[in-house]
Each structure stands twice: as structure tokens, then as C-alpha cells.
Design goal:
It is an enzyme of class 2 (transferase). The chain is 40% helix and 26% strand. The strands form six sheets. Strands 6, 7, 8, 9, 10, 11 and 12 form a seven-stranded antiparallel beta sheet that branches. Strands 23, 24, 25, 26, 27, 28 and 29 form a seven-stranded mixed beta sheet that branches. It has a five-stranded antiparallel beta sheet with strand order 2-1-5-4-3.
């Protein structure tokens, strides 16, 4: 084509270039030095130019002004064509033009000095993307085939998606469609994107969960403008999800998982990219299902092989018509001897069996598909002088199409049993010959044996019986012969005896040993231990009276039960005595103080002192009951997730104050934070109790070392086996006197102490023990007398992602004046109820007392609006306080409920169910404070219009 036609403005040529769907332009190249091209400008463009480049209004304009970041490659290439006149065909990308990829044919046009170049080009970005995505799918298939486990499959798929699409975040998560949450284990990130590992709520990021539940892929190009996400755009951008694609994964009609791809900037998702995302998901799920099936098959085969290996019978698996060994278990090797089995056919492994019929039977079973079995079959192995006897079966195995593919061989070596049976049969033949005629004199053994002997026929009657029957059971020979032996049996022993009888006659077992109870003629029962040998349809048996031994065993068991009961009573007595001792001390203080308060003309200073003594004593009594509940694992815990190291650091200063300046306190804490789930206050108390115990063991001078480490099990201790799992081990070691070995089993018992009177309650370590057990852990102690002791507290170790940081509300001030607040008090104890009502009146409240839950519900049904709060005891007859609170929550959702209890097994096992709890004993200030807290949360009702 002559380039002058275009330059002269040929209308036909112009129409031609405007009609084609590829881009066309004529450019003029400018050089800023010889052979160095600096820029080019557009002289003419066709109508498709703008579609292929995205540039508009370019005629007469320079490229560096239109696209300052345009690659130098383009200027160099066009300059070279303009200078040399050699046309060029090439492909290259232009990032400054939106990352487009072009296929270009360029040639010089016009006079050389004009330095003009005609360019025909097409935007092949879509094709390149398709090629890149297709190549990525090929790579994905290869990489998936190389992975060994399911987790690696997911990692590879996420990486391929992320790198191919140039996004920042890719991952999979398990979905709970009811709770509308997604749980992510780990994901693929780049460019500093934040991982989504953990549990997320879909509704926190938009309303598109509804689309996902319908099975629709959610495509968001800009979270700020999409109506489903614009309200939550900030939360999405914080997680690098300004634009994203969420693909739901369904199994058996249920929404179970989600694949997500996201980027931190707005993005128009191409259709081929969406197809690529879906295809990666399909291939990954297919590979995952295949790998899971393979792993399940491998596990099943391993279990089967393990099962076959544990079987007492010999087992072999043969394949193909030549019966090649694929598997033999250890019993097979023990029976037939060590040989090279696997991969060899049976005729090569056992050439000595030729002519014994086994090879012919294998061929028959393989050809016909009919199994074969035989009993006590003789076989002669190489190197053995005598025959061996086996019970065996040949069972054909089949492929998916039903054709025979091999033979399963199984059986037992019964050589010893056969030899024993032969010997017994010979003996029994002689025995039967001797007893055939009743009139013949019987052998001295038969006549004089203290053991019962007899011969039972197929109908279950004793054909013969020796004199010991009369001695042991009181029955005559005639009575024995006329009664089926089942009629002598204890009712509970009839069914087992029938099974043994069937086994003896039908299965032909060589010998049986069993015990049962026979009826004595006096109506009592005797325990007999039997040995029975079946032969020729009869059973030859003997039995020994073991009644005395059974009675001795029973007496021993009763004595052991009585001993355990006595030990329990002794433990209860020790615990009761300790509680009585400590509470009598506390009651002495209270009684003395109340007596002194009754004295007339008591100075105010002494009155305050006595009242304070009563209050302090009540606090000590509350702590004492709390420690007892801790040991009994019945305290109400408030578990939180926190770092054990942080808890140790927080309590270190207090421990240092308690131990004194002469005791050095050392902490050994790991850099990695070890999170535990426990009640923080009880955790602090346990550390303090262990530290005080260590201080007292060192006589005021030494070193205490506190260490924290993760542990993968609780070791075996105190007759308990080891417990596998994830735990945090918090150890406190001292350099004190140590604990004698015979005392280690007692140190956790309530009120056990080696300290002087008045220097310890004996409840500190019992609190540690109870707290550890109730939290799901344990406490271990190791000690060397003269060197020191180490207490190790094992508590459940949880992942950092499970950590919950509770928001600690400011404790409200005491409500000194009730402001006419109306309180419904529910208390079945009249004294406690009267105190509560009087205290509330003194504080300015308006209390209404109900004696039980039914009365309370009746009051509320009359006029619930007059009450501002319900204050109820937990332990009450009939409906308890927790059930009452639940019923009030259901009937009157806005009415707050406060629970109170000194102890409740319901609270200890189930918690407070979200209700406020005021522990008994409580003060008037405690009562006022909790009412202030709950009433301040209650929304004030909107007044109704007149």
C-alpha cells in the first residue's frame, strides 16, 4: 500500500482505516540528539484508536504530555523505525495506558526526513490475561499434585490466586451460616496486608451475606460505592478489602466455606478473572476432596493392616491367577516360617506343598469364585519331620466388576490342640471302656476323687456320675441320671452353659473350662469349676467345689468396701473438725464483740472497735468458706483469657512485699506470650498462696523462682495418668527445707498444716488445688528435703486468637440514698429477708418481700412496672433463683435481676447466665453498689402521650 495515499488524504483509505476494528495512527518522531529519540506526536488516528488506548483528543499532541510515565521502549522502537525505515512487528505492554498489552505492526511512511511512522495495533490485553490465567491454572494443577496434605493444597491455591491476580489478600474460611460468622485459620497476604485469621462476623462488613447464602458470588469493585458495603467501607479498607470477590462453597446444599480475594484499591474485576477465581476454587475443592479420599483410604488400609496384624489367626492376601503374595501378618510367618513372601507366587514360596492339594484348591477357588474351608488339615512344611494341623479358609476377593482378583487366606495352627485332643480321645476311650458297665468296679480315682466327675450324653443327661456328687451336692446317682443337667444350674448361669454346651457338641472344641453355680439338695448353691472334653457326641467332665474360695473373695471385697467407707468418714471428720475449729474461733470474736456492745455507757471509740472486729471477722469467715469451696471445686469462677506472664508480672510486686527483703524473687518468663483461660483473681490468689508457703518454708531467707512455659501434657501424678493437651505450666520453686515424702499426699488437704498454731489455716494449698482442678488443670509438687520444693500449676493453654479483652466498667459509687427505688426482694430465709428489707429501707429504697419464686411472679403479674429491680436468693425450695431470673427475663425483658448466694451447685456448674451476682455475706454498701450498677443500665421508659 502506498503511504502517500494517506498523506494526500485519500478519502477511500481514510474510510478503510476508520472501518477496521484495530487501532491505527501516524506519528512524527522527534529526536533531541542524533540517533536519540525524545518524543513523538500524533498526526492522524482512526476511530478505533480511543477504544484501544483509552487516549482521547490526541491529534497534534505529544506522547510524553499525554502519558508522562510511558515506557522508553516505545520511543526507542518508533525512533528506530523512523530512522532506518525497517518495519517491525512486536508485542509489548504499556503500564501508563492502564496496563494494556498491544500487538503492533509499524512502518515508516512519507519521506525519511519527515520521520513519520504508521502504526497498526490491537489491544490484546484480554488475550494475554487469558494466557496468563491459563498458564497459572496449569501451574496450579502441577503444584496441587505435589502436595501431601489438605492444608498445603489451600496454601498453594491462595498463593497462585494472589500472585496471578496481583491482589493483597487471598484465603479460605469455614462458615457458620446460622451465626453468620467465618473462621479463618491462616491466609495468603502480601504488601503488608493484614491477615484475617480468627473469627469474623459477616454483618460487621456489609449485607452481602444474604447473597452468599443464596449461593451467589459477591463481586465488589469499590466498597465505598457498592450499596451493600458503603456503610462499612472503613472496616473493609482496614482489612485491605476496598475491592473483593467472595465465592461461597456449598456441600450437600449447605453453605460451609468461603473463598475470598481482595485488594486495597478499587478494581474492575474482568470476567476472565472471575472465571479464573471460580476455576481455581473448583480445582482446589476437587484436589482437596481427592486428597481427603486418598488420606481416608490410606488410613483405612493402615487400620485394616493393623487389625490384621493384631489378629491371632494367620492371614495372607494373594493376587492374580498365580496367587502372588501381597500381604502376610506375623502369625502367618510364625506358622509357615520366615520366607521371602511379598511379590512371589505361592508355588515358588512353598515348593514342598506340591502334591498336598493346597495349590489345586487355590486354583479351584480362583476359577469358580466359591470359597473353601477345612478343619484340622495336615500339612508338612520343609525341614519338619511330622505333620502340622491347620484350620484354614480360602475366600475369593473381587474387583469392582465382580470378577475374582485374588484370594484371602486365613486360619489357625491347631497342631497342639489336635495332639491334645488325640491324647484325650485315647484317654477317654479307655475311660469309657472302664465305665460302660455300671456293675464293674470303677477305678479308685473315680470312686475316691473329691472332685465331681461325669459323662453327659447328647440329650443333656448324666449317663454316669461318681460318688463325689453326693458328697458335694447331696444328689444320688439315680437323681443325677434322671435330671437334665441344666435343671441343676442357677438361673443366671443357664444361658452361658447352653452356649458352652453348643460349642462343645456343634463346634467340636477340644476342651472347655468354666465356672457356674449348681443347686445343692438342701436348696443352697455351690460354686463349681469345670473342665469338659467333648468326644463322639458325649462330654466327659470334672468339677471342683470352689464355694469357699468364692466366699473368701466376697468377704475380702466387703472388707475393702468397709475400709474405704471408714477412710471417707475419717476424712469427713478431719474436714468437719477443721471447719468447726476455725469457725468457733471466728464466732468467739463475734460473740465477745456483741456482748461488749450490749454494755451500757460504752465509749464510742470502743463501739467502733467492736463493730469493726465483727466486720473483719465476717470477712475472714467469707474467705474461709471461699477457700473451702475452692478446694471442693464449687466456687463460682469468672474465667478470662489472659497471658500468664502478664499475670505473674502483675502479682510480683505483691509477692515481693509478702516475702520480705531477705528473700530474692526471680522470674523466668518466655518471650512468647502464653495465654491461659482462668479466673484472674483466683489465679493471683493461687500464686500468693504458693509464695507464702514458700516464704514460710525458707525461714525468711532464700530465693523464690517463678517460671512460665508451655506444656503438651500434664504428667502422671497422685495415681492419675498423664493428660495430653495444651497447657501452661506456672512453676514456683523455693530453696527452703523441702517436704518429706510421706507428707506430699497430705499437703493439699483442707486444714492440714505443719505450722505453729495461729500461723496458718491449712487452706492455702487446698485453694490452689481446687482452683486448678475446677479450671481444668492440676497442680504438681516435687520436693527434696533440705534443698527446696517446686509447685507447678497446670492451666489450659489457649491460642492468642481466642483472647478476649473484657471492658472493665467503672465501679459505681455507693448509692447512699435509694431515691425511692422499688426493689422486689425474694428470700425464703425470714432472718436474711428481714435484714435485706431493713437495710434497703435504711438506704432509702422501697423493698417488697416475697418468700419464694411463686410469690415473686405473682407480685410481678399484678404490677411489674412499679419495680425497678428484683433481688433474689439462688437456693430456694421449688423454683430456684436462676430459673426465676430466666422467667423474669422472658416475661419482663427490661427488668434487671440481681442474684445472691453463699453457694449454689447450679452457679458452680453453670455460672450466672449473665445476671449480676452478689456473694453472701454482703454489706449494705455492697447491696447499694450493685443496685446502682444495674439500675444505671436500665433504659428509662418513654412517657406515654396524654
Amino acid at each position: 500500500m502506498s503511504t502517500h495515499i494517506i498523506e494526500q488524504g485519500s478519502q477511500a483509505t481514510a474510510n478503510f482505516y476508520n472501518d477496521i476494528d484495530i487501532g491505527f495512527c501516524i506519528i512524527e518522531v522527534a529526536f533531541d540528539a542524533p540517533n536519540r529519540q525524545a518524543d513523538y506526536r500524533f498526526l492522524e488516528v482512526n476511530s478505533a484508536f480511543e477504544e484501544h488506548t483509552g487516549l482521547i483528543d490526541v491529534t497534534g499532541r505529544w506522547m510524553r504530555n499525554l502519558a508522562p510515565d510511558h515506557e522508553q521502549f516505545w520511543f526507542d522502537r518508533y525512533g528506530n523505525i523512523a530512522r532506518t525505515g525497517r518495519p517491525a512487528r512486536f508485542e509489548y505492554s504499556a503500564q501508563a495506558l492502564g496496563g494494556r498489552h498491544f500487538e503492533v505492526y509499524a512502518y515508516r511512511t512519507g519521506d525519511p526526513e519527515q520521520q513519520r511512522v504508521a502504526v497498526l495495533f490491537a489491544d490484546i490485553s484480554a488475550r494475554k490475561r487469558e494466557e496468563r490465567l491459563r498458564t497459572a491454572l496449569f501451574d496450579l494443577t502441577d503444584q496441587l499434585a505435589e502436595q501431601e496434605d489438605v492444608a498445603s493444597l489451600t496454601d498453594v491455591a491462595c498463593g497462585v490466586l494472589g500472585r496471578t491476580l496481583g491482589v493483597q489478600l487471598v484465603g479460605y474460611g469455614l462458615v457458620n451460616p446460622v451465626a453468620e460468622t467465618i473462621t479463618v485459620d491462616h491466609d495468603w497476604t502480601t504488601d503488608g496486608a493484614r491477615s484475617l485469621a480468627g473469627m469474623l462476623q459477616f454483618r460487621d462488613f456489609g449485607s452481602y451475606i444474604d447473597d452468599l447464602k443464596r449461593g451467589e458470588t459477591v463481586v465488589v469493585e469499590d466498597a465505598r460505592t457498592d450499596p451493600r458495603t458503603r456503610t462499612f467501607a472503613a472496616a473493609l479498607e482496614e482489612r485491605c478489602a476496598r475491592a473483593f470477590v467472595n465465592t461461597p462453597i456449598f456441600e450437600r446444599g449447605q453453605f460451609v466455606a468461603l473463598q475470598y480475594v481482595s485488594t486495597g484499591v478499587p478494581r474492575v474485576w474482568m470476567e476472565e478473572e472471575l472465571r479464573f477465581i471460580r476455576e481455581v476454587g473448583v480445582r482446589t475443592r476437587t484436589a482437596t476432596a481427592r486428597r481427603q479420599a486418598e488420606m481416608a483410604l490410606q488410613a483405612s488400609e493402615a487400620r485394616q493392616r493393623h487389625l490384621l496384624q493384631q489378629m491371632p489367626s494367620f492371614v495372607g492376601v494373594l493376587t492374580g491367577p498365580d496367587h502372588t503374595y501381597a500381604y502376610v501378618n506375623d502369625a502367618y510367618v510364625r506358622t509357615a516360617g520366615p520366607r521371602e513372601y511379598l511379590g512371589r507366587c505361592v508355588r515358588d514360596v512353598f515348593p514342598e506343598l506340591a502334591g498336598q492339594g493346597f495349590f489345586e484348591l487355590l486354583d479351584q477357588v480362583y476359577a469358580t469364585g466359591v470359597p473353601f474351608s477345612a478343619r484340622t488339615t495336615p500339612v508338612r512344611f520343609a525341614g519338619e519331620d511330622t505333620d502340622r494341623y491347620i484350620d484354614f479358609s480360602f475366600q475369593p476377593t473381587r474387583g469392582d466388576d465382580g470378577t475374582v482378583t485374588g484370594i484371602f487366606v486365613g486360619g489357625y495352627d491347631v497342631t497342639e490342640q489336635q495332639r491334645t485332643a488325640l491324647a484325650l480321645r485315647e484317654l477317654n476311650v479307655d475311660l469309657e471302656r472302664k465305665v460302660t458297665e455300671r456293675a464293674l468296679a470303677r477305678g479308685r480315682t473315680w470312686q475316691l476323687s473329691p472332685d465331681i466327675m461325669g459323662v453327659i450324653n447328647a440329650q443333656g443327661y448324666f449317663e454316669q456320675s461318681n460318688p463325689a456328687w453326693a458328697t458335694v451336692l447331696g444328689w444320688s446317682e439315680a437323681e443325677i441320671a434322671s435330671t437334665v443337667f441344666f435343671d441343676f444350674l442357677h438361673p443366671d448361669d443357664v444361658a452361658p452353659a447352653q452356649e458352652a454346651w453348643a460349642a462343645a457338641l456343634d463346634l467340636g472344641l477340644p476342651a472347655l473350662s468354666f465356672e457356674n453355680r449348681y443347686r445343692h439338695k438342701d436348696g443352697g448353691w455351690r460354686w463349681l469349676s469345670w473342665v469338659a472334653v467333648p468326644d463322639d457326641g458325649k462330654v466327659y467332665c470334672s468339677a471342683r467345689d470352689i464355694t469357699a474360695g468364692k466366699e473368701q473373695t466376697s468377704a475380702l471385697l466387703r472388707a475393702e468396701d468397709a475400709l474405704r467407707q471408714a477412710q471417707k468418714l475419717e476424712a469427713v471428720g478431719q474436714l468437719t473438725g477443721g471447719v468447726a475449729h476455725d469457725f468457733n474461733n471466728l464466732l468467739t470474736v463475734i460473740k465477745s464483740s456483741t456482748d461488749l456492745l450490749k454494755r451500757p455507757n460504752l465509749p464510742e471509740e470502743r463501739r467502733v472497735r467492736y463493730v469493726g472486729a465483727i466486720s473483719d471477722t465476717v470477712d475472714r469467715a467469707a474467705r474461709l468458706t471461699g477457700q473451702l469451696l475452692a478446694f471442693a471445686r464449687r466456687q463460682t469462677l469468672k474465667p478470662e483469657v489472659f497471658a500468664a506472664c502478664d499475670g505473674v508480672r502483675a502479682i510480683t510486686e505483691m509477692v515481693g512485699t509478702l516475702t520480705g527483703a531477705r528473700i530474692k524473687l526471680v522470674t523466668d518468663l518466655p518471650e512468647e506470650r502464653v495465654f491461659i483461660s482462668a479466673d484472674p483473681s483466683q489465679f493471683d490468689t493461687a500464686l500468693v498462696n504458693m509464695a507464702v508457703n514458700a516464704r514460710d518454708a525458707m525461714d525468711g531467707e532464700g530465693q523464690i523462682t517463678i517460671t512460665v512455659r508451655p506444656a503438651d501434657a500434664i504428667p502422671a501424678m497422685r495415681t492419675h495418668p498423664a493428660v495430653a493437651g495444651r497447657f501452661a505450666a506456672i512453676s514456683l520453686s523455693d530453696t527452703g527445707t523441702g517436704i518429706a515424702a510421706d507428707r506430699l499426699d497430705q499437703i493439699f488437704e483442707p486444714f492440714f498444716t505443719t505450722k505453729e498454731v495461729g500461723k496458718g489455716t491449712g487452706l492455702g494449698l487446698s485453694q490452689v488445688f481446687g482452683f486448678a482442678k475446677q479450671t481444668g488443670g492440676d497442680v504438681m509438687v516435687s520436693s527434696v528435703v533440705g534443698e527446696g520444693t517446686t509447685f507447678t500449676l497446670y492451666l489450659p493453654h489457649v491460642a492468642a486468637g481466642q483472647r478476649e479483652t473484657p471492658t472493665k466498667a467503672l465501679e459505681p459509687d455507693v448509692l447512699t440514698v435509694g431515691h425511692d427505688t422499688c426493689v422486689l426482694v425474694v428470700e425464703d430465709n425470714a432472718d436474711v429477708g428481714g435484714f435485706s428489707v431493713q437495710a434497703l429501707i435504711e438506704l432509702g429504697f422501697r423493698p417488697v418481700l416475697a418468700g419464694n419464686a411463686d410469690e415473686a411472679l405473682a407480685e410481678l403479674s399484678t404490677d411489674a412496672g412499679r419495680f425497678d429491680v428484683v433481688f433474689t436468693d439462688v437456693v430456694m425450695p421449688g423454683m430456684n433463683g436462676i430459673d426465676l431470673a430466666k422467667e423474669i427475663r422472658r416475661l419482663h425483658p427490661g427488668l434487671p435481676v440481681v442474684l445472691t448466694s453463699g453457694y449454689s451447685h447450679v452457679l458452680a456448674q453453670e455460672g450466672t447466665h449473665g445476671f449480676e451476682l452478689l456473694q453472701k455475706p454482703y454489706s449494705a454498701d455492697d447491696l447499694s453498689r450493685v443496685f446502682r450498677r444495674v439500675t444505671s443500665r436500665r433504659p428509662h421508659p418513654t412517657p406515654l402521650p396524654d
